[in-house]
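Design request, tokens follow.
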């Protein structure tokens, strides 16, 4: 791709982004068949991406035979193991050239070795539309002077730089948004909010949920009056409870839970795949209070992240309980298995399901626009206008990674990292090697990393052993997992280790296949 075509590509995409209102764009996408969009993407990638061309050829697949959505759904899924890690990085890009991209982000795998994800300016504009949905529909930032404080880790990690760029593109589009980037420096965040916040009508904090809560709690202990800044939160990287949302909301002096928060379903592989909307939050809060309904809808007794997505931007499918998506990026992805378990629900199916449980979220949003407590008692739906930000987009729900990782401050933590900590000299003689890794919450809803370790037969528990094991696990997490080292604040890094006897019934029952993680 020559410099001129890159230039034209950037100018055309930016002009469209700047000149198209978010409502117009989503309205257009409603009338665009997502199946034709994804088939067009497939044929483009099959023709222009060397790695995908080779991937299909190795399996005897002729691209010209893929003409319908049914054909498309027979294509083999790609994943890191069978695709991303098998081909040279340039071959994963269009024309086999990294130069078609202008930015590279990194995500670290189980060994700590990063995977690199190139992207171009136009890829970021697609994702900026997800941020625009939030800032326009939830925060009314098209008419309110807004300070956006980037609290994601800065550097090669995808969250900080990607989010910064997307917020700046919204400012270019005319939103009165000003961006500042303290990253995950807690003292700097508090200084920024206190010194600059009063110049704006609202302050948006963007970061990982447990880190933002830590910032808020630290601010309270320092005498920060959060309510005066009209705080809004944009979060990513974690599934959190509605109880958590309520607790944090109360501490910042929220106005309305459905309009003061938004969580992103994002990934280094492809940016933001979907986002919470006032509607999805309203529905999730109802389901949190009605676990029987949630169990019927999701098939599990845990509450997943629930977001809406634009199928012309990211096309989702479900295969054996795993989410696959296709989307255009610096590395275009076709039927990509990100190892997330979850499902998809159409807009109409969602409303029909809720109607059976005597709940109308559209009425609830109208009834409680100025009420921070959602109930199932509604007034009649306003005939003059529906609540802002209601788009008939499909829903995707996400339980999280199916490959036994746990997510902590946005970092994926792998059992393999902990194993190495238990294999160190001296410690290996005390333990069987079995453990259970989980993220838990204390009474104040602060998260901590819990590791329950099985002691070897005949080994007695002691505080010295517990402390030595915790220090060894921490040392290996810091050494092996670069996301952990960079994302998790130092005061939250040391795992809380508990020692259990061999064959402990709760954690290490004998004769049962062991699971190293719990959620």
């Amino acid at each position: 791709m020559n410099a001129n075509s890159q230039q034209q590509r950037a100018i055309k995409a930016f002009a469209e982004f700047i000149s198209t209102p978010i409502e117009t764009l989503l309205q257009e996408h409603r009338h665009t068949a997502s199946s034709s969009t994804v088939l067009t993407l497939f044929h483009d990638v099959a023709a222009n991406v060397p790695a995908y061309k080779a991937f299909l050829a190795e399996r005897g697949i002729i691209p010209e035979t893929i003409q319908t959505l049914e054909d498309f759904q027979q294509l083999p899924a790609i994943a890191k193991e069978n695709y991303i890690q098998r081909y040279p990085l340039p071959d994963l890009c269009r024309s086999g050239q990294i130069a078609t991209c202008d930015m590279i982000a990194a995500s670290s795998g189980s060994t700590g070795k990063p995977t690199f994800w190139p992207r171009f300016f136009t890829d970021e504009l697609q994702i900026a539309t997800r941020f625009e949905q939030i800032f326009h529909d939830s925060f009314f930032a098209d008419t309110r002077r807004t300070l956006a404080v980037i609290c994601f880790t800065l550097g090669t990690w995808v969250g900080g730089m990607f989010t910064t760029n997307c917020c700046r593109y919204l400012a270019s589009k005319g939103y009165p948004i000003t961006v500042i980037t303290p990253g995950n420096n807690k003292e700097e965040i508090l200084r920024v909010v206190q010194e600059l916040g009063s110049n704006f009508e609202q302050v948006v904090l963007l970061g990982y949920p447990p880190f933002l809560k830590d910032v808020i709690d630290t601010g309270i202990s320092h005498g920060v009056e959060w309510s005066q800044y009209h705080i809004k939160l944009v979060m990513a990287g974690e599934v959190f409870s509605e109880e958590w949302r309520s607790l944090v909301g109360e501490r910042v002096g929220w106005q309305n839970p459905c309009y003061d928060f938004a969580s992103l379903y994002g990934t280094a592989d492809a940016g933001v795949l979907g986002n919470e909307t006032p509607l999805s939050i309203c529905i999730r809060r109802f389901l949190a209070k009605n676990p029987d309904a949630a169990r019927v809808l999701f098939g599990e007794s845990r509450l997943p992240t629930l977001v809406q997505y634009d199928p012309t931007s990211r096309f989702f499918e479900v295969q054996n309980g795993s989410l696959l998506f296709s989307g255009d990026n610096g590395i275009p992805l076709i039927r990509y298995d990100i190892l997330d378990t979850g499902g998809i629900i159409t807009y109409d199916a969602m409303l029909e399901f809720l109607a059976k449980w005597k709940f109308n979220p559209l009425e609830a949003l109208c009834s409680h626009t100025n009420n921070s407590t959602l109930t199932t008692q509604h007034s009649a739906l306003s005939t003059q206008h529906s609540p802002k930000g209601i788009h008939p987009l499909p829903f995707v729900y996400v339980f999280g990674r199916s490959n036994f990782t746990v997510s902590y401050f946005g970092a994926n933590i792998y059992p393999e990292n902990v194993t190495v900590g238990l294999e160190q000299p001296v410690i290996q003689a005390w333990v069987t090697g079995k453990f259970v890794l989980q993220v838990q919450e204390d009474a104040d809803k602060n998260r901590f990393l819990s590791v329950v370790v099985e002691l070897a037969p005949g080994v007695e528990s002691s505080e010295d052993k517990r402390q030595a094991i915790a220090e060894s696990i921490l040392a290996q997490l810091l050494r092996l997992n670069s996301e952990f080292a960079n994302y998790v604040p130092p005061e939250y890094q040391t795992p809380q280790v508990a020692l259990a006897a061999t064959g402990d019934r709760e954690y290490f029952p004998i004769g049962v296949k062991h699971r190293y993680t719990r959620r």
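Comment from the thread starter after seeing the answer: thanks! Confidence is low (pLDDT under 50) at residues 370-385.
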